[in-house]
Design goal:
Helix content is 48%, strand content 13%. It is of the alpha+beta class. It starts with 44 loop residues before the first helix and ends in a 9-residue tail after the last helix.
């Protein structure tokens, strides 16, 4: 007997077969099948009727724990503290301590402020994320009606234990996985809405022995049930466990962590070499020694150089850039709960999607009916009218999903006056024994007739008034053929007949379908054009999934429950290949969705997931990008990175395009920032050790602040939208950054060298009068003043070279081929002007002196010439990389090198992945409570 008796062989439950209760004493023979949960039930009906005793319930509660979901919520102070931990934070903290010890209040204030701004930004973003487990808990009813010590009482549902006898009433949320007991009337059924759990749009009809799941709701009927599994052992609890187990850093966090560690490693090498060289210089110079002031300044300079070499403004730049995208999406009724997901959306190449409520409307609608060809005069209106008259006419009675759909269609398609002119004189309700409804109707002319609707085969048993057989072999053949065609398309048939003048006529078959959203097909086509493959993952029957795919223009290779049930028998390679090649998946459970997403991610895909139900929450949480659609449950909303508030999916295309734009801006920033770090590290080392030019710590802080302040405007830069999913390709990024950094060192070195020779417009130094022995004076060059000015030249070259490198890093082609945003260009102009004014009127002391406008002009000429040189070199390197990639393939050398770079990241996704082999077991084994033999 199917769970959905109305539809014959199609199981609307989509989850499990019948699980009849068989106690060992009732099993006949040694080979009789014994239910694995029989130990939960009392040994006799007399004991069973009393329910558990309070003492027994307490023992079981202590053994298995409360019927509640565990939360692993981190306290806010621990979350905040976590942003003061890590390579970047440690380095800044060390610099803060040193500047404090040296009482260098200006540097201390700047570094301390940067440390707290970074932590505050990170904490703000993390604290915004919803708690998915808490949302799941809110979906469960707080109390349950249970029989204890022979008395019905209402208790906190957290105190339920396996073996409890509970009562389910219309409107209740099922508090735990339970097995339904025989109903008061053998013809009664319970209708359970499991849409949030299974994705099934039609309520499942449950009879004695059927399993009801925690979190589902009772739509019709009342009944008693035995609790089978509670808490984390329940079907609902497994979903919560999957969600709680997903903790991994985003791709962008991993990329920046890897780059930061590489930069720190390089910086430590060069800074160590700098310290050693300066100590040797100081100790060997005449009249100088390694005093405390020297060592203090050297230590501060080394730490500030380390800080300047890492992207300390990254949180502000990345958050600002992605926050702009979040504000843009909010205008389209999309909430972004995790900002880094905007960047990850750019790389998504597979978008997995739930069907019910996501691709479809989650509204059961009447599809095109099959009209019996032996009655050519029949129209759609005739069969809609007949089926509506076969529904319960009493508006006070609750309607099942089929009757509600039929009545809504009738109200929409038929004249209201004509429909109301028909009077239903009597009505026989549906029950699982007859599997049909029957009504006697009087039309506007006073003529009486009967209508019948129900399981298509059942109508074959109708007899005429004279007792003759209603339908011959031809009628049966036509109906059966139509049923098979509808079933192949996943459409759910209901037969409709009426009796006129004592003779029954088979009018046809109604078919029902959850229709696609109005913009779903267009959205899928646009996603495909953008290189994003859309795959359906649904709890619905495979046939229904295939029909929906057909209507949406998606592939038809749909894997069903059989594949998931035998996963534990197959090799990892085979499983990965099947999932890689499939167009979609049907009859899946929440853990199956999770497994599909997880394996696709293991296969190297960046995976997105859309959904709306509790059953989607684990996969939404696991995916690189989770998207909850309009009308979603609180659990789906909390597990997602994006929440769509308005109907339709077209906004996903906007999010993809916007994310790719933001990705391009972030990649340009990373190229620029890595190049700048290498530039500063190498040049300062050469300036101090080789050129004998001092670069005070304050100069490095100013350069860092001006450059990072300017680059924040990259959030508004003009960039093209990539037609394909984008990825970091770190090897390419690092190579381009190294080229720009090395040439940057060359340009600043050229400025310092030419200023040392006093050529090309440089006129450094000043003459001072020195008295002679005969009372006259002579002019000599002030060497100290000249050295201080040379340090100013180095500062100006560093600052201008870094600022103008932004224009080079922002495009792989020549910098003049794409105009920058006005805000970015204005910020660079302001920073360059500020650097020039500081070079002319240096106000801070720190062993620097202002230089003339002609000297500033000379630095500008050198930098502008080198900008052209760097830009040409960049274009050549890009072409070389493109040629090498085309020759070797993008997955060869570059991929291996990138793996080594990413190895610096500390994330281990495998460490947070649950054992999916467990979920390949039959569902009855997966939700089994703990054994009670020891209780």
């Amino acid at each position: 007997m199917s769970n959905n008796d109305f539809f014959g062989s199609i199981n609307s439950d989509g989850l499990t077969e019948r699980s009849p209760l068989v106690r060992p004493a009732q099993a006949g023979g040694s080979n009789a099948k014994v239910d694995p949960y029989s130990s939960l039930f009392p040994a006799s009906d007399e004991v069973a009727a009393q329910g558990l005793s309070s003492m027994e319930a307490q023992v079981r509660l202590e053994r298995v724990g409360p019927n509640a979901l565990e939360e692993n919520e981190k306290p806010w102070w621990k979350l905040l503290l976590s942003f003061y931990i890590g390579p970047m934070a440690y380095l800044i903290e060390l610099a803060v301590v040193v500047t404090l010890a040296l009482r260098d209040w200006a540097d201390f204030g700047v570094l301390f402020g940067l440390l707290n701004i970074n932590a505050g930004i990170g904490f703000y973003e993390a604290n915004k994320a919803g708690n998915a487990v808490a949302a799941l808990k809110s979906a469960l009813t707080p109390v349950a009606m249970v029989k204890r010590d022979g008395e019905w009482t209402e208790i906190d549902k957290a105190n339920l234990v396996p073996g409890d006898l509970i009562r389910l009433r219309m409107g209740d949320v099922v508090p735990a996985d339970c097995i339904l007991l025989p109903l008061a009337n053998a013809t009664d059924v319970l209708e359970i809405d499991q849409a949030a759990l299974t994705g099934e749009s039609i309520p499942a009809k449950k009879a004695s022995g059927d399993l009801c799941y925690a979190g589902s709701s009772v739509k019709r009927g009342d009944g008693d049930a035995w609790v089978k599994a509670t808490g984390k052992q329940s079907f609902f609890g497994k979903s919560a466990a999957l969600i709680a187990g997903v903790e991994a850093k985003s791709h962008f966090e991993q990329v920046l962590e890897s780059i930061t560690k590489v930069l720190i490693a390089v910086a430590f090498v060069l800074v160590t070499a700098l310290i050693v060289a300066r100590v040797i210089q100081q100790s060997t110079a005449k009249g100088k020694d390694l005093n405390g002031k020297f060592m203090g300044n050297l230590t501060k300079q080394a730490l500030v150089l380390l800080v300047a070499s890492i992207p300390i403004a990254l949180p502000a730049v990345s958050t600002g850039t992605m926050a702009i995208g979040a504000r843009t999406l909010s205008k389209e009724n999309v909430i972004v709960s995790r900002l880094s997901a905007i960047e990850e959306m750019a790389a998504v190449d597979i978008l997995c999607s739930d069907k019910t409520g996501t691709l479809t409307k989650n509204e059961l609608t009447l599809d095109d009916p099959w009209l019996n060809p032996i009655h050519p005069e029949l129209t759609r209106a005739d069969i809609v009218l007949a089926s509506a008259l076969g529904c319960d006419p009493d508006p006070a009675n609750a309607k099942d999903a089929i009757d509600s759909c039929i009545l809504e269609s009738a109200a929409r398609e038929l004249d209201a006056g004509f429909l109301s002119a028909h009077h239903v004189l009597s009505h026989e309700a549906f029950n699982p024994v007859t599997k049909r409804t029957m009504g006697e109707v009087e039309d506007p002319n006073g003529r009486r007739f009967r209508v019948c609707k129900g399981a298509p085969q059942v109508l074959f048993n109708l007899t005429n008034e004279d007792g003759s057989t209603t339908f011959d072999a031809g009628d049966r053949g036509r109906v059966n053929q139509a049923m098979e065609e509808l079933a192949e398309r996943g459409l759910r048939p209901v037969g409709v007949a009426w009796e006129v003048d004592g003779t029954w006529q088979y009018l046809g078959l109604l078919s029902f379908l959850d229709p696609p959203r109005d913009d779903t097909k267009t959205t899928i086509e646009q996603a495909n054009e953008l290189g994003v493959e859309v795959r359906m993952i649904t709890g619905d029957h495979v046939a229904i999934a295939k029909e929906t795919c057909r209507r949406l223009g998606m592939g038809s290779d749909i894997q069903g429950s059989e594949f998931f049930r035998r996963m534990h028998e197959e090799t990892d390679e085979y499983i990965a290949q099947v999932i890689e090649e499939a167009d979609g998946f049907g009859e899946v459970l929440p853990e199956d969705k999770y497994a599909v997403v997880d394996i696709l991610m293991q296969n190297g895909h960046v995976c997105g997931m859309t959904g709306d139900g509790v059953n989607d929450a684990p996969a939404l949480k696991r995916a690189d990008v989770g998207i909850a659609v309009e009308g979603c449950t609180s659990a789906a909303r909390a597990a997602s990175d994006f929440v769509i508030l308005s109907p339709g999916l077209s906004v996903i295309i906007l999010a993809i395009n916007l994310s790719r734009t933001i990705f391009s801006r972030m990649r340009n920033y990373v190229i620029y920032r890595v190049a700048s770090s290498l530039y500063v590290l190498m040049f300062v080392f050469l300036a101090v050790v080789v050129y004998n030019v001092e670069i005070p710590a304050l100069v490095l802080v100013l350069i860092t602040l001006l450059n990072d302040g300017t680059i924040m405007t990259i959030a508004y830069d003009n960039v093209p939208i990539s037609p394909r999913p984008v990825e970091w390709r770190l090897v390419r990024v690092v190579i381009i950054a190294i080229v720009l950094g090395v040439l940057g060192v060359a340009e600043s070195s050229a400025a310092v060298f030419l200023s040392h020779t006093h050529g090309y417009g440089f006129n450094l130094g000043r003459k001072i009068d020195v008295p002679t022995s005969n009372g006259a004076t002579m002019q000599i060059n002030d060497k100290t003043y000249e050295d201080n000015q040379r340090s100013t030249v180095a500062y100006l070259a560093l600052s201008l070279g870094g600022q103008l490198s932004i224009f080079i890093a922002r495009t792989p082609s020549f910098f003049f081929t794409r105009a920058p945003a006005a805000l970015l260009a204005g910020a660079v102009a302001f920073a360059a002007l500020a650097a020039s004014l500081l070079a002319r009127y240096w106000p801070f002391g720190q062993d620097l002196e202002g230089i003339s406008w002609s000297d500033i002009g000379a630095v500008w000429v050198i930098i502008l010439v080198m900008v052209v040189v760097k830009d040409i070199a960049k274009v050549i390197v890009y072409k070389i990389l493109d040629s090498a990639e085309a020759r070797l393939g993008s997955s060869s050398t570059e991929s291996r090198l990138e793996d080594r770079v990413m190895a610096f990241a500390t994330v281990d996704r495998d460490a947070v992945r649950p054992d999916l082999r467990f979920f390949a077991l039959p569902i009855s084994d997966r939700i089994a409570p703990l054994p009670y033999s020891t209780i």
